[in-house]
Amino acid sequence: MMMYKNYPLVRKGNELYFGYMNDPYVIYLKVEKTQKQQDVVVSKNIKLYQMSTDLEHPNITQQAERDTLYDALDVALAWLHRANRS
Predict the structure, then answer these.
(1) How many Å apart are CA 29 and CA 27, to the nearest integer?
(2) Distance between CA atoms of 64 and 51, rounded to whole angstroms?
(3) Per-residue pLDDT tens for 56-83?
(4) What is the pLDDT of residue 58?
(5) What are the residues whose beta carbons fall under 8 Å from the beta carbon of 54, sequence distance 6 or more?
(6) For every residue of 4-51, which 3-state class applies, written as one string?
(7) For residue 40, what pLDDT is reported?
(8) Is the pLDDT reported for residue 7 higher than 80?
(9) Most CB atoms closer than 10 Å: which of 18, 33, 42, 47?
(10) Taking the model in full, what pTM does it have?
(11) Would you say 67 and 44 are in contact if contact means Cβ atoms under 8 Å apart?
(12) Across the beta sheet with 60-68, what order do the strands follow?
């Protein structure tokens, strides 16, 4: 399993989940666009959603959009720290 800053990061295609599913919240990231730079495909235009992991009451509590995956993960990490620190 891939980890980023001690949180699991699971990817399938252009969708990513960031965080532990047993915590109250995880972050769902959707890559809207990609761009080829030389021989590498770079993620662009990422939408983020903070989601409850409660299956009986699922909801999105925050959302944002960032230009790069690094910036999106930076925001996601801050959201997870704030939401799951109880």
Answers:
(1) 6
(2) 12
(3) 887 999 999 999 999 999 999 999 999 9
(4) 79
(5) 24
(6) ECCEEEEEECCEEEECCCCCCEEEEEEEEEEEEECCEEEEEEEEEEEE
(7) 87
(8) yes
(9) 18
(10) 0.87
(11) yes
(12) 3-4, 7-12, 15-18, 25-37, 40-52, 60-68
